[in-house]
Every structure is written in C-alpha cells, then in structure tokens.
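#struct-help
A.M.: can someone run this one for me? Single chain, 284 residues.
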Amino acid sequence: MKLRLAIQKSGRLHDDSMRLLKECGIDISNGVNKLKSEASNFPLEVFFLRDDDIPQYVEDAVADIGFVGENVVYEKKKKIDVVEKLGFGKCRLSIAISKGENYTSAAFLQGKRIATSYPVLVEDFLKANNITAEIHEISGSVEIAPGIGLADAICDLVSSGSTLFMNGLQEVEPILQSQAVLVKNEQLSPEQQAILDKLLFRIQSVKKAKNNKYVLLNAPNDKLDEIISLLPGMKSPTVLPLAEAGWSSVHSVLSETQFWDIIEKLKAAGAQGILVVPIEKMII
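D.P.: on it. Structure tokens below:
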C-alpha cells in the first residue's frame, strides 16, 4: 500500500515541499510536466496539482494527504483535517488600501468595494466585524484593482509587501496568518494512518532540527555550575573533561529563539571556544 500525497505542481510551495521530502530521506523523481511520481524508498505516491484543487482532491480521497497553504484550506472549507504546520510558505492575507488614505479600524470598509481571490475568508472577516461591503472576486492581479477603479480596497496574500508598494497600496489589516500545512482525508484506513505516522515522525524530526542548534564550548571547572544552569538542553548538557586540567567540554542543544541571548550569557560566564553546529535531524 502507498500513501498518495498531493503537492503544488509549480511555484514556491512546490520547491519547499520537494525539499522537505528530500530532507525526510524520501527520494522522488520530478520530471518536467510530470503529473505524478512514486518514491523509490518510501510507500508514497506524489500527485502534482494546482494548489486550489488540493483540498477537494483530499476530501474526495483521490489523494490521501496534501501539502497546501492554510489560506487555501480555510477558503475552500472542505471536509479535511489539518494535521501539521510545515513551517514554510509563511505569508498573511491582508486588507490593503491606497496610500494616503486614513485607516483607523475595519469600519473603514463599510460600504466599500473589496477585490480579492479569497471571497469566503473576506466574507467571514466582514461578518465578524459587522461590516457590509461589496466583494469583487477576481482570480489574479488583485493589486491593480484600486488603480483601475474596480475596487476601493483589496484583500490579498502578502509576504514582503513589495508588490503592494509598487502599486501604490498600503497594508492595513491582516486577517489570516498562513503557512503550508499537511492535511489528510478524514477517513484514512489504519494502514494509511500508519504510513502517515511514519511520515509525520520524519517531518517533525526535520522541523525540530531546523529550530535548534548544537553547541559545544569549553568551560573552566569553577564556572561549570553557572554555565550548565544557562543551558536548557534536551535533558541536561553533556560534560567531558579536557586534556588541560581544570577545564571541561560542554555539549548541549539551544533553540533558535533563545540562541543569541544564551550565547551572550555563556560568554559572560566564562565559556570559551564556543562552536555552533547545525542539526540535520533531531529525534526526541
């Protein structure tokens, strides 16, 4: 039995999805214009599809699981389960208006025309804020709508904001924070779920490795207790004696979010020769 995975057929999410599978040790050949491919070393078959179609394919069990943006999942509202956030494809769905206009709250949108490719999410936002506005659904180039008189505001995906800037727009209201997620069909068989669990184990190990660094340092023995107290580690730091009397080598793992703050404290406490090594996989 193979698990069928749907991913975006081209674009950034495609590249990041294929990279994640490779980091999970899954070998998939991806020929030009190929619609599907099988892993050579894992029970997985990959379908290359339009991202907007992936929730429907997963709901219909044409694919068992999918990698897709949260924005698409919540816009399509299909009967599928979100299993895991994948940590890539991060962006936000935001309201934007012309530069120079004064936006103080969502009430600004009352009676306005909003152009978007995400009418369901925009409608949900308007209802939640008791606002009545006219939604114009368009499939692409949303950012030009105010400039050609089609709309007073837009709601579109924003990453750096450069596209908005180039079109004379300002971002004023994020309505959804999005990233790629793993979704699954609600009715997976026990055999399919077992394969998914193995895939999830690999994905979570890769994610943990990216969010942590392996740290090695030299510490004077009279400062060991203070230095060890600064290192959270997975359980406790590893301490090994050095050839030079009175010194020890300390090994630990630091999370990316705490990294610089703790490194500064370690140095101030007397740690020397601090080495930082990326972690390829992290099994807890």
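A.M.: thanks! The radius of gyration is 24 Å.
D.P.: also worth noting: Helices lie at 12-23, 54-59, 70-76, 119-128, 162-166, 190-210, 224-229, 259-268.
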